[in-house]
Write a structure and sequence with these properties.
- There is one protein chain.
- The chain is mainly β and 118 residues long.
- The strands form two sheets. Strands 2, 4, 5, 6, 9, 10 and 11 form a seven-stranded mixed beta sheet that branches. A four-stranded antiparallel beta sheet has the order 1-3-8-7, with no helix packed on it.
- It is globular and about 45 Å long.
């Protein structure tokens, strides 16, 4: 079983930064995609950034140039550095790890809340 625990959320003012962490418990998959998703109440959960086991990264248009995803392999920990925060970044942030090999299973964390307000 794989468990994911997010942390680092909180309250920030526009223009400030926060760094989210996602600790993956258990054995990481041989090849994987670790995605950061966010969800506003009443809306769908959207993928905003991700990183693969090989280190390739991807970003959604709304966060590209402001957010940076990284990983610490030794610590099984993934990070989302969020810079120049905007009020529209207010959401609950989730990490999800997807096994890119069969059986292509995936696991979610429970989320951490981010509120950006002046």
């Amino acid at each position: 079983q794989v468990q994911l625990v997010e942390s680092g959320g909180g309250l920030a003012q526009p223009g400030e930064s926060l760094r989210l962490s996602c600790v993956v418990g258990g054995n990481l998959f041989r090849t994987y995609h670790l995605g950061w998703h966010r969800q506003i109440p009443g809306q769908q959960r959207d993928l905003i950034a991700g990183i693969t086991s090989s280190g390739s990264t991807n970003y959604g248009r709304s966060v590209k140039g402001r957010f940076i995803v990284s990983k610490d392999n030794a610590a099984n920990t993934f990070y989302l550095q969020m810079n120049n925060l905007k009020t529209e970044d207010t959401a609950t942030y989730f990490c999800k790890i997807s096994n890119l090999d069969p059986p292509h299973d995936h696991y979610w964390g429970r989320g951490t809340q981010v509120a950006v307000s002046s």
